[in-house]
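ugh finaly. both done.
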Amino acid sequence: MLRNKELIGPFVITLALAAASGLVCGALGGMAAGLAGAVCTALAGAVWLAVTARRYARLRQLGEYLASVYAGGELLDIRDNREGELSLLKNDLHKITVTLRQQSEQLAHDKQFLQGLLGSISHQLRTPLTGMLVMADLLARPDLPDEKRAEFTGQLTAQLERMQWLLERLLTLSRLDAGCLVMESAPVSLPALVRRAAAPVRVALELRGQTLELDCPEGPAWQGDEKWTAEAVTNLIKNASEHAPEGGRVTVRLRQDALAARITVEDNGPGIPAADRPRLFERFYRGSNAAPGSAGIGLALARELARAQGGEVTAANRADGPGACFTLRLPMRPGAL
């Protein structure tokens, strides 16, 4: 109790009153001594009553403040630098209320993000599903010509492949968000990684008459996850192909130094509009030059896969001509970037 300055003053006053009462009683004796002792006791009680009333008033104010915060009121800085149990309580309650308000705001933000995410996913799935239902009805017609049946079957297969691609990427993003996507760490030949990343999109580029140029000299092995890094590069090449014109060119360059490896993917399309740059890596964001049917998750996935390994993906317009340039930076050793 003596360490609490809120009680030291009243305690000292009570001791002084008790000492004064003893002296007066010893000096007066008889009825006068009893009266003096009663007066001193009453004064001591009044002191403690005043202290108790003041403490209860502060507790009541604190309770009213907490009730207002619970009702959504404004947070106030109730921290108190004075010593005492109530001051310590106010400081602890301030920390708790601030933390709870931050968590509440984060939950509201997450809820809004989830609503937008579910809306985007439903939109991405609704479009191919609608087309698939129409084609399924057409394929059920017995009088459908064989050439049309083959055409609709091919379109149905393409829509199913698009849905499979979308769901696989969404699953990868959710695993990254949950922190349960395991990244391996093994020596990787980056030129081989780029060739592996380019393989899945070569046919699409050829169908559009586009040229894919690889400038990837041999260099030191990089330590990381080949599979998921190749996935990131594939998404960058696919994005470049979607924005390059038919008959255009996509160039992939690899450069390495002691600190980092840099894989740049360039196209000769219209470039990145200034309005799209702040949101370029947002999930499901489709820029003004987005290709028809684009899901808007390839760039977001590429960046998340890079960051999971200590790297980064950046975007800019080319300095030597029209087109965009995306750069994937990977640290040659952990923490190098």
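ok and the 2nd:
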Amino acid sequence: MKTFNIIAFALLFALLGGACSKDETKLIAVPKAGASLQASVSSIVLTKEHADETALVLQWKPADFGFQAAVTNILQVGVKGKNFEGAREVALTAGDSSYSFTTLELNTLLLAMELPVDEATDLELRLKSTISPTFTELYSNVLPLSATPYAAISFLYVPGAYQGWAIETAESLISPTSNGVYTGIIYFPEGDLEFKVTTQRSWDAAYGDDGAGRISLTASGNIRAPKPGNLELTVNTNENTISFKDHSWGIVGDAAAGWENDIDMRYDNSAQLWRATVELKAGPMKFRKNRDWGTNYGGANGILNGDNIVIAEAGTYHVVLDLENGKYSLTRK
């Protein structure tokens, strides 16, 4: 009986000793504290005139995971009150303890978040620190930042077979706020559907077809429009994607080629106007979108409305449709 008790006690001691050893190992690996983050300013109004100047400097003391390890840091920028849901992330170089934004870099980041321009938005900043996927991330203290971005239009260019591959005269795609999403409308004739997308009016950096609606600066193949006609292109350089959809305006009516036969207009991306030079007869006409009566305009005295436009005298006309301002013009040559 005494022998049994001794054996039982020894087993219990071994189990307790083993448990203590494991607990001690876990304690060594338990993280201690996230990074300590500081910013040079808590409020900033960005202006285009200072685009190349330093706007924001962040400094930090590294997170302490309880032992020596290589730490990877990511800066998170989110709208205040959203608990960093949908926050923008900036990967930071391992080993660095500071990071600087120029005005242009910070403005680009804020516009990519679709923040209103010329208006202050309350933001929050923090560092996410990791050492391995098997360890829980550590987060720094949260810093407030009131930031006011400015409007910044940027362009991409689309040289292709539709215009003889001339980079100097290629149509442009526009990003009104430089948030990485560019749109434009291009007319592709039958048989001239291939093109590329360039960052400047040069061939130094050109996006090619990377398959399945994706584009890449390293892809050599030409991008191809899905069909001829007026198409609206959307290029997202944040996700390296391209998409197409129908977007056309035409002239219909007794003054043109009838009420169901559209004379296609061409879109001028730089001026954001639809244009056509056409032979018109005396009689009524209208503009309609995508060869359908769901969206159509007539007008009088250069102002768009629902009435028919009446052509008083036959001839060759230069027609301009300004949808942004609700106007049109008819100039007889």
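summary for the 2nd one i guess: Confidence is low (pLDDT under 50) at residues 1-29.
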